[in-house]
Design goal:
Layout (H helix, E strand, L loop, with lengths): L3 E5 L4 H12 L3 E6 L2 H11 L2 E4 L5 H9 L8 E4 L14 H28 L4 E5 L12 H21 L5 E7 L6 H4 L9 H8 L9 H12 L8 E4 L7
Parallel strand pairs: 1-2, 1-4, 2-3, 4-5, 5-6, 6-7
Helix pairs in contact: 1-8, 3-4, 4-5
This protein binds NADP nicotinamide-adenine-dinucleotide phosphate (NAP).
Length: 241
């Protein structure tokens, strides 16, 4: 039976590269995203199926999950996420709710709703996307770091909780990866704040990574059948520098 994969936030960056690699490996790939035009365009480019779903909207997440309930789902890449660059003084409860709803509740709710679909397929596998920011502090990224710390904690706990159902749960921690995420923060590489420049200068491999390099690790993790509860770094060595 053809294996079915869902990549959230599959219209851009790491999600796009992961969907492309999974498609090349023969999976029946679905991508989801919040913007209909962007998701549709990416789906045409990648020759995959697309679903419009905002991960911060609970009814969207329910509708997305419903697609897989009858036939099941083998692979879930919980990739959709947003960043927020703000010093402590500028953080508000509203901003907290927006980023936690997307990066944490979206991840948790999707796994919850998809549980029957994942149980239908033997040895299904989930990879969540955390960040090297959980190992290395960067000023202005405390809220983002808190969401990714939550993702790692729920990854380890769910790995234990879902192991009896033969569902594996892992995460990867990308470092500085060249994707549109920085532009969405409203900053271009030439205008990076000093804190980010310093963080990038400390990368042992002396360069940013590519979405394709992260996608390789995600797919390897998804297919590593004796790995669960693991957090794999893909960060040019920055987390141990
Ligand atoms: N790039 C890095 O250096 C880096 C490092 C560590 C971790 N990460 C993590 O890697 C993941 C992918 O990020 P990326 O760098 O590839 O950034 P990206 O190019 O901005 O991709 C993020 C994807 O998530 C989607 N998304 C955001 N909010 C959403 C929502 N509420 N509902 C549905 N989709 C939503 C985006 O849609 P739109 O196109 O509509 O915005 C986009 O498709 C994120 O979880 C990010 O935190 C990135």
């Amino acid at each position: 039976m053809e294996k079915v994969a869902l990549v959230t936030g599959g219209n851009s960056g790491i999600g796009y590269a992961t969907a492309k690699l999974l498609k090349a490996k023969g999976y029946d790939v679905y991508i989801s995203g919040r913007n209909a035009d962007r998701v549709q365009q990416a789906a045409v480019e990648l020759d995959v199926k697309s679903v419009v779903a905002d991960m911060s909207n609970s009814s969207d997440v329910e509708q997305l999950s419903a697609i897989f309930l009858e036939d099941g789902l083998d692979i879930l890449v919980n990739n959709a996420g947003i960043a927020n660059l703000a010093p402590l003084e500028r953080i508000t409860h509203e901003v907290f709710l927006e980023i936690f709803n997307t990066n944490v509740w979206g991840v948790l709710q999707l796994i919850k709703e998809l549980l029957p679909a994942l149980e239908r397929r033997a040895g299904s596998s989930i990879t969540n996307i955390s960040s090297a920011i959980t190992c290395k502090g960067v000023p202005g990224l405390s809220l983002y770091a808190a969401t990714k710390g939550s993702v790692e904690a729920l990854t380890k706990t769910l790995a234990i909780e879902l192991a009896p159902k033969n569902i594996r749960v892992n995460a990867v921690t990308p470092g500085a990866i060249d994707t549109p995420i920085f532009g969405k923060l409203g900053i271009k590489p030439e205008n990076f704040p000093e804190e980010l420049k310093q963080a990038f200068a400390g990368i042992p491999l002396k360069r940013t990574g590519t979405s394709e390099e992260v996608a390789q690790v995600i797919v390897a993790q998804l297919e590593s059948t004796y790995v669960t509860g693991a957090i794999w770094a893909v960060d040019g060595g920055v987390s141990i520098a």
